[in-house]
Amino acid sequence: MADITAAIDETAANQLLDTAIALIPPQSTSGSGSLGPFVAGYSASATFTGGNVDLIAPGTIRIVDLQVNWNLNFSFGFDLSTILPDFCLPQVCIPIPCVGTVCTPKICIDWPTISIPVSFSDFVRATADFGLSITLSGGVWTVEAVVQGVPNLQFGPASAALLVAIGAAATPILLAIPFIGPVLAIAVNGILAVIAIAGVTGFLGPIISPFVSGLKIPLYSQPQNFLAVPASGPNDPDVFIRLDSVMATITSDTEDELVLEVDVS
């Protein structure tokens, strides 16, 4: 039997997890991805808001409607060569007496790639199962809830507004290109319409999913040598107890509870 036992029910677990999740600092990442024919370099950040906790014996904490609040800054590269046909001025040769044949150079237009910056924020909810991890490292006992697997992220309809944001950012830049600007704007917005929500999900999933798949929620942390009674004078030194082992489980005897058991010496 453990020397110290502490238990909380699901109501208290909701409060504990909400507080612990709120204290997780913003997470960030960067990289590149593709949205249809377009390539984008991005930087993304995410914070979390707790959902409803369901304690499942013997060791699963399920959080329903865990909310991931994300912000995305990226720059899309529009390769105009994928939209506009290659265009070359033909070579013309003219015979000139006493000189020979003189030819004009063959001139081809190399369509550039235009970078368009876009910023977008939204949130996504997921149901995630967490296991209990107990470690002793550097003289400190730590209990964490560690996500098990990658939950299915349900991107809401608002994420489809990402296409609108891209179109809104691209249109004025493309319209400013002489002669062909209106054609480019129409073509790009047509491509974005074809991409639709499935393309947005395919773009956002690999960016946002790693934030959740690596999530750890701290539940308990104490030094192995725990200060039980502080010194009250020069002849009354600090009193320490040693936490020999720490166990965390979920029981469902009378009600679902998260139980922490500690053996001391």
Strand residue percentage: over 45%
Q: What's the order of the H and E elements?
A: EHEEEEEEEEEEEHHEEEE
Low-confidence spans: none
Shape: elongated
Secondary-structure-derived class: alpha+beta
Number of DSSP helical runs: 3
Alpha carbon gyration radius = 30 Å
Number of strands: 16
Overall mean pLDDT: 86
Quaternary state of this entry equals single chain
Helical content stands at 10-25%
**Main beta sheet:** 8 strands, antiparallel
- From the N-terminal CA to the C-terminal CA, the straight-line distance is 14 Å
Defining key terms:
single chain, 265 residues, alpha+beta, 4-stranded antiparallel sheet, 23% helix, elongated
Overview of this protein structure:
This protein is an alpha+beta fold and 265 residues long. It contains three helices and 16 strands. It has helices at 10-22, 161-175, 181-213; strands at 4-9, 27-35, 38-49, 52-56, 60-79, 87-89, 93-96, 100-103, 107-109, 113-137, 140-147, 154-155, 216-223, 225-229, 239-251, 257-264. Strands 2, 3, 4, 5, 10, 11, 12 and 13 form an eight-stranded antiparallel sheet that branches. It has a four-stranded antiparallel sheet with strand order 1-16-15-14. It has a two-stranded antiparallel sheet with strand order 6-9. Helix 2 (161-175) packs antiparallel against helix 3 (181-213). The longest helix is centred in the last third of the chain and has 33 residues, at 181-213. The radius of gyration is 30 Å and the shape is elongated. It starts with a strand and ends with a strand. 19% of the residues are buried. The mean pLDDT is 86.
